[in-house]
């Protein structure tokens, strides 16, 4: 503990006792912002996190009035109450500087040199609340995504039960719709569990040198009938000897996702091309299509879970909105990165950069 810390935190003046010094250093080492005000509501102490969070232009907080730092009536009242009657209280504060931050603040009293002072502990809830929002959004997305095919399945089962089962012209068609929706639910559930496995760190990546051209050929073979349905040409421009350093199964999964998208979002008789670009350390694999492209304001969002540019349409062509989120995580697990460039009406290029050892 430095003498400055003691002076800044002010507890030391209580006979300069060793316990006061320990207390000062404990408060200074606390992650939460802590401030102490005297009976005239002027700060006599502020730890480092408080200084970092509430000071503008690094002006010291100590010696300034509480009202100069916080313009919140309920916060003032909490400190005033503590000073007036010794009562502790809890308040919530939202501060908007360059970003919005939310605090739960506990205000209590302490005796300093025999005089009642008020101390405030600021618990920063911003991150926890953001994660909570993400979790809630994720859950509501999942239930929405599952409800849509389920509603359709239930409706068609009812129609069949109500007599359509004997309608030879339509019963197979209805069964087909039920099967497609059940398959959709299956895809969703496997993508969700895949994503949660990756996010929880339960997927290990074993990187080896992989002949990229072979993998691309295999994926093209697997997706050839899908491409043929829309007369899409698949072009593998990766040189035969090119090797990338990756986990072969995960690399295939990433590229399958990108190539599948490049087919799905392509124009009729379009082209999907895979090639590599050298990087200072490693290589970039490019999946380029001649599709409709993505609006600039949407490009930044397509890696978010469940984000789809055109929800209705993408659902019809079998998308879950989770594919790119999975690819992004896998690229990161490889120590790499994924980026996208798109031009509306011209096409899109996804780049996976994979470092070499
Ligand atoms: P999905 O299962 O819907 O394909 P993804 O996470 O793979 O989910 O993709 C998210 C969204 O990004 C897609 O719904 C689509 O709107 C957009 N997208 C992805 N790849 C392309 C592409 N090659 N061309 C145009 N849009 C694309």
Descriptive report:
With 357 residues, the protein is an alpha+beta fold. It has helices at 3-9, 18-29, 48-54, 66-69, 73-85, 126-161, 171-199, 212-222, 224-229, 248-264, 296-299, 311-316, 323-333; strands spanning 33-37, 43-46, 89-96, 100-112, 115-124, 208-211, 233-236, 243-246, 271-279, 282-289, 337-343, 347-354. A hairpin with a 2-residue loop joins strand 9 and strand 10 (282-289). The chain starts with a helix and ends with a strand. Residues 1-15 have low confidence and may be disordered. Adenosine-5'-diphosphate (ADP) binds at residues 257, 261-262, 265, 289, 291, 294, 302, 307-310, 314, 319-325, 348.
Shape: elongated
- Order of H and E elements: HHEEHHHEEEHHEHHEEHEEHHHEE
Distance from first to last alpha carbon: 43 Å
Structural Rg: 30 Å
Bound small-molecule species? adenosine-5'-diphosphate
Biggest beta-sheet profile? 5 strands, antiparallel
Percent strand equals 15-25%
Helix content: 40-55%
Structural class: alpha+beta
Number of helices: 13
Q: Stretches where pLDDT falls below 50 for ≥5 residues?
A: 1-15
**How many β strands by DSSP?**
12
Mean pLDDT: 89
Instruction: Going across the biggest sheet, name each strand in turn.
Output: 2-1-5-4-3
